[in-house]
Write a structure and sequence with these properties.
Helix content is about 50%, strand content about 15%. The protein contains 12 helices and 7 strands. It has a 5-stranded parallel beta sheet with strand order 2-3-4-1-7, sandwiched between helices.
């Protein structure tokens, strides 16, 4: 919306309430926005300022509650080791995704890091590097492992936090047991995010075809494959990063 067109209708700073992001912002942000208005700044710039400040505040909250285990809290792009062309390509794609994230928030472009059958290749490290970088830049992204997400929803029956957040990163998709309730819950989250054009990022040990087969369930005695519906939404607008190779954890232990 072009808020600057509304300027002739504004009689005072109180009319800033017409701006959605101003109305829902904190008192501190509102006061700064009022200062900008009184200085004659463009209303679109003021609206963007309010939105960015709210996103930054949400990012700080999500950083505190991020489901990034202690082992992966220090995983960054700087300490991601590229030992082969596949890892180098994955690294460069991940960095570019972060660099273009403001655009991805507008288009709803997601990301899939797939092992295609390989384990221990750095999928979670790279995903956490993306999340840590985005959170540090003030972009709100919720990070959670799929099994923990399912367990949390079973406990409190709340799925809105996973739908409403601007960006969601689900680690190890496909590791959960595909019961009817799990499949329907996952479909609801991914479909709602797809329709709202909100980026969903995932890591998975296998590939897209394997994910499809993970969500075959029995409904009224008949087999239904909801995997096609789930994956079709994940791959509508997305960046695909294959990350295959040897298990570096096994090499480290050798």
């Amino acid at each position: 919306m072009d808020y600057e067109q509304l300027r002739p209708q504004f009689q005072s700073e109180y009319d800033l309430a017409y701006i959605d992001d101003f109305r829902t912002a904190s008192d501190e942000v509102q006061n700064k926005a009022i200062e900008k208005y009184l200085k004659g700044e463009n209303l679109n710039i003021i609206a963007d300022f309010c939105k960015q400040e709210q996103q930054r505040a949400l990012a700080e909250e999500l950083k505190k509650e991020a489901e990034i285990s202690k082992r992966f809290q220090t995983r960054t792009f700087e300490n991601f080791i590229c030992e082969n062309p596949i890892q180098k390509n994955a690294f460069e794609k991940a960095k570019k995704y972060v660099a273009d994230f403001k655009e991805h928030l507008q288009t709803g472009t997601g990301l899939i890091i797939a092992g295609q059958g390989s384990v221990g290749t750095g999928k979670t490290h790279l995903a956490c590097a993306i999340a840590n970088d985005l959170l540090n830049q003030g972009y709100p992204i919720k990070v959670i492992n799929i099994t923990r997400m399912i367990a949390a929803i079973k406990e409190d029956f709340k799925i809105k936090p996973y739908i409403d957040v601007p960006a969601l990163l689900i680690d190890d998709l496909g590791k959960e047991t595909g019961t009817q309730w799990v499949v329907e819950t996952l479909y609801t989250i991914i479909n709602e995010r797809y329709e709202a054009m909100k980026p969903t990022l995932i890591t998975t040990e296998d590939g897209i075809e394997d994910l499809k087969n993970n969500y075959e369930i029995l409904i009224n005695g008949k087999k239904k494959n909801r995997g096609k519906a789930i994956t079709s939404r994940l791959i509508q607008d997305f960046i695909y990063i294959p990350l295959t190779g040897e298990d570096f954890r096994q090499r480290r232990a050798a």
